[in-house]
Design goal:
- It is a single chain.
- The chain is an alpha+beta fold and 594 residues long.
- It folds into 5 domains: 178 residues, Rossmann fold, CATH 3.40.50.300; 90 residues, Elongation Factor Tu (Ef-tu), domain 3 (Beta Barrel), CATH 2.40.30.10; 74 residues, 2-Layer Sandwich (Alpha-Beta Plaits), CATH 3.30.70.870; 106 residues, 2-Layer Sandwich (Alpha-Beta Plaits), CATH 3.30.70; 112 residues, Elongation factor 4, C-terminal domain (Alpha-Beta Plaits), CATH 3.30.70.2570.
- It is 28% helix and 32% strand.
- The chain is built from 15 helices and 31 strands.
- The chain has an 8-stranded antiparallel sheet.
- α8 crosses α9 and α13 runs antiparallel to α15.
- It is globular, with a radius of gyration of 29 Å.
- The termini are far apart.
């Protein structure tokens, strides 16, 4: 009987490029299978966060269980963005098959290909699906040829649907039953489950989403293999998409465990969950790795008195997001703040948006930086996350920066402009291949060049037609320096940046020129300087407000005028000596804009 139940289960995911209709198709499945009633139905039903709804992207993984023709479908709705690539890889590892969704009006894009290669590496059954067949701009034959050439599939394997109208959706559901294999029978009665993600619930504590690989998961003492966190769950269940309690989850099933823990920091994506009594007797599931922050930013409250509010807000966000890493920092110009590590620039944008929107905080965020590896004169290697941590150049023997393997899909007519952009961003071309009417460009590009505005510039150059996907490939030696910004001869760490030697002077001049426009004028002359170590490489001066102290004179000897001017000069010199410069948010935004 148990094997028969296993035969009725289908675990699958939908992989697609952003905006190819993945969430719309998920909504259509929920409606077609009757999982969500017509009264409860709404668009983007799986997206719980308002930012997900507004931006039209999936940020948080969300599984759902559907019943269709006597079969149990477990759909794991994954994020699509490159920042959450590891979470996607673990979700795919929990499936037996995937729907490879391609927008029939746009064709294959960079993320489609990257996710296809992840699914192929895991030996998953792939069902290619053309979506948006209701659009007048559909080019079915051309996109089908592209899919056949790129994915190595036959024409009769490709299904056509419109998630918006429901056209072809029932045929797709039938294909899931026929083509995607059932989970493999449990190899052992000892529990092994893969953690897909986690979140925090006010009433149930930390909740872990899990796919059971072996054994049976029920309410008994459990433990996490990698982190050693142990707990007695207060509830086990599955998603419909609401949390629905059940007695146990068997091998092949996807559900949740309400741990009762106070935070999610020890519930890591990809970890193995097992019975406490069997922890020493099982082999953990392969593929686990700790989340690694790719981008660092410093965040300061505009009002220094709100620092404790910022700390509390970050603690609450970290309850829901185990990949958030943060520590306290201090700046002489901005006071107390937090240095925060993010998975990528989109992850950073979402966290900042939530801090401002959900906690009503006015914040200043410094320019994003990547992790540099520095070898000092004694041969010791240290990691540098922000410019303020960078040692004096005389102590540095070697600096390495993170590199990426980047894939760009572009129409042929933009190829020349993209080549120039890659060269300007210190990239190195690896491979160029024609895919239908498009080109696939592979290049090695420094991560520091990608995180600022690479994506926006790429979209501008190609009128929005090109797409980018990247993954970290390792570290490469680079001649990097810290450009310090001095206001009134005092360094402001929050305005400093790390760049390559050849661009240092250009970046320094750009910064001081921009700061001259946005830093408020003072009662004393204010020099703005860019420096590398003790060498000044650029300078601008903001002239002081001038008060005409001789206006009250109506005659007499010229020495009276000179005496007043000398007195004023002495006062300004003293004011300059003790003068503090108040910085506004525009000063920091100037650093972000190239």
């Amino acid at each position: 009987m148990y094997l028969n139940i296993m035969d009725q289960i289908r675990n699958f995911s939908i992989i697609a490029h952003i905006d190819h209709g993945k969430t719309t198709l998920t909504d259509r499945f929920l409606a077609t299978t009757g999982t969500v009633s017509a009264l409860d139905y709404k668009d983007r039903i799986m997206d719980s966060n308002p930012i997900e709804r507004e931006r039209g992207i999936t940020i948080k993984l969300a599984p759902v269980r559907m019943d269709y023709k006597g079969y149990i479908f477990n759909l794991i709705d994954t994020p699509g963005h490159v920042d959450f690539g590891y979470e996607v890889s673990r979700s795919l590892a929990a499936c037996e098959g995937v729907l490879l969704l391609v927008d029939a009006s746009q064709g294959i894009q960079a993320q489609t290909l990257t996710n296809f290669e992840k699914a192929k590496a895991l030996n998953l059954k792939i069902i290619p699906v053309l979506n948006k067949m209701d659009l007048p701009s559909v080019n079915k034959e051309e996109v089908m040829l592209e899919c056949m050439e790129t994915f190595g599939v036959e024409e009769d394997e490709i299904l056509s649907v419109s998630a918006k109208t429901g056209q072809g959706v029932e045929e797709l559901l039938d294909a899931i039953i026929d083509r995607i294999p059932a989970p493999k029978p449990s190899q052992s009665d000892k529990l092994r489950g893969m953690v897909l993600t986690s979140k925090f619930d006010q009433h149930k504590g930390a909740i872990v989403y899990v796919r059971v690989i072996d054994g049976v998961l029920k309410q008994e003492k459990l433990t996490m293999f990698a982190t050693g966190e142990s707990f007695l769950p207060n509830e086990v269940g599955f998603f419909t998409p609401k949390m629905t309690p059940t007695k146990e989850l068997k091998a092949g099933e996807v559900g949740y465990v309400a741990t009762g823990l106070k935070d999610v920091s020890n519930l890591k994506v990809g970890d193995t969950i097992t019975q406490f009594k069997n922890r020493d007797d099982i082999k953990p599931l392969e593929g686990f790795k700790l989340p690694t922050p790719m981008v660092y930013m410093e965040i300061y409250p505009i009002d220094g008195d709100e620092f404790t509010l910022l700390q509390d807000a970050m603690e609450k966000l970290a309850l829901h997001d185990s990949s958030l890493v943060y520590a306290g920092t201090h700046s002489t110009a901005l006071g107390n703040g937090l240095r925060v590590g993010f998975l990528g620039i989109l992850h950073a944008e979402i966290v900042l948006e939530r801090l401002k929107r959900e906690f009503s905080l006015d914040l200043i965020a410094t320019a994003p930086t990547v992790t540099y590896k520095i070898t000092d004169n004694n041969g010791k290697e240290i990691e540098i996350h922000t410019p303020s941590e960078m040692p004096d150049p005389t102590f540095i023997k070697m600096t390495k920066e993170p590199m990426t393997n980047s894939v760009i899909f572009t129409p042929e007519r933009y190829y020349g402009a993209i080549m120039q952009m890659i060269r300007d961003r210190r990239g190195e071309l690896k491979e160029v291949k024609n895919v239908g009417v498009r080109m696939r460009v592979k290049a090695s590009i420094p991560l520091a060049e990608i995180i600022i505005d690479f994506h926006d510039t790429l979209k501008s150059l190609t009128s929005g037609f090109a797409s980018l996907e990247y993954e970290l490939s390792g570290y490469k030696e680079v001649d990097a320096v810290k450009v310090s910004i001095l206001l009134n001869k005092e360094p402001v760490d929050a305005l400093s940046l790390i760049t390559v030697q050849e661009k240092a002077e250009q970046e320094g001049k750009r910064l001081v020129k921009k700061l001259k426009e946005v830093v408020p004028r003072q009662m004393f002359e204010l020099p703005i300087q860019a420096a590398i170590g003790g060498k000044i490489i650029a300078r601008e001066t903001i002239k002081a407000f001038r008060k005409d102290v001789t206006a009250k004179l109506y005659g007499g000897d010229v020495t009276r005028r000179q005496k007043l001017l000398k007195k004023q000069a002495k006062g300004k010199k003293r004011m300059k000596q003790f003068g503090r410069v108040e910085l506004n948010q525009e000063s920091f935004l100037a650093v972000l804009k190239r």
